[in-house]
Prior knowledge:
By secondary structure, this protein is α+β, with helices and mostly antiparallel strands. It is built from seven helices and 13 strands. Helices cover 17% and strands 22% of the residues.
Amino acid sequence: IPLGAGMLYGANRVEELVIDYTYCESNASTNAFSDIPEEYYDYYFHTPMTITPKWKYSINESETYEDERGLCEIQFQIPNDIGPSVYLFYRLKNFYANHRRYVKSFSEDQLHGTAASLSLIKDTVGQNCEPLSTDENGKKIYPCGLVANSLYNDTYTSPLGVNGTSDYDMTREGIAWATNKNRFKMTKYNASEVVPPPNWIKSYPDGYTEENMPDISTWYEFQNWMAPSALALFSKMVLRNDHDKMVAGTYQITAGLHFPVTPYDGRKYIYLSTRSVTGGKNPFLGIAWIVGGAICLVLSLAFLIVNI
Length: 308
């Protein structure tokens, strides 16, 4: 979706706001809220926005690791009542989760809760956890593989009301597909049998214990991440509210900055959206039909000319 403040009235019932906060740490003020540059946000509401989205970079001193302390405080206007339902997603750009080696690097047996053997997670044809099956000591990684190791871990608050606007409560319940309950089960591994993925070291600095073993059956953010996208631009739901309108006003969402994207020229966004009776706003299928039709037209003309 190209960014640059835009508006769409009436014709599309789906209303949405997209804000690119990739460069919040380097571009936002630390003393007060400043305007987000126009090229970093886009929106589609029935009423025009009159207040430019703003951001501020701050530090969470309670965070143990210094490089994990960054917070991006984002304020934005909802110019008219929207929803229900209202959904909050994160969006990633230039993250190629469709790479063949990456997308095959996981263990379905582990996701089902099985205490899978080393041969199952390392040698299964078609899907195995290589090159992240074991650590340097030969101990099984849980959950193993490249997909789990790269788990997205930026955090988001529910929208808090600003300047007299009431808070808008959102929940993580229901953000994953209902069918996932048949796929993701609590593991049968003992904590002493396995180690966390390498990139999870900050969450589990001392490894697993019986008290802190992750329960992936209720870890909906993990479940969403374990369904890799076919495209390099994709969104994953993190919060939703299916019952209440989000009334017009000014809100603030605070994003905890943990997931790096700039080393590979990636971008990350917060994406707030409603839906219509036909679902969310996704132009891909319509564009694909138009492109397909244009190709057929060109080919038919070419064959006609050759035939004549």
